[in-house]
User: What shape does this take?
Amino acid sequence: MFTEAQFNRTTLECMTALRRRLKQELGVTVRLSDVDAVEHMIRLSRDSRLGDIRELGLRLADMTTPEAEPEPEMQLGQGAIASRQRLLQQTPAPAFEAPPPVRQNESAPVRIYRGQVVR
Assistant: This one.
């Protein structure tokens, strides 16, 4: 299955055109609402005798395959400070979490006034 970012008007047009051609040639009805509709149409287009169906299948396969993220290049021979700075730039900052409330005396009465805890 492909992500929503890959699904656009050209992808939908290619899917419907391939679906129509597969129905004309093989008599196979592929429902676009099926979970594996894209993979099924690509598989059927690979086995087709007609070049235009194979071409549509290849276009659809190219549109729906996720693009691989480029791997970060290794920087050799850098010092300890430079490597730590690079790691800090790559990793996202941890989310700030508030420290747990300090408990003065657990047996002391707790009152809540207008949504605030008063001790």
Summary: The chain has four helices and two strands. The longest strand covers residues 111-113.
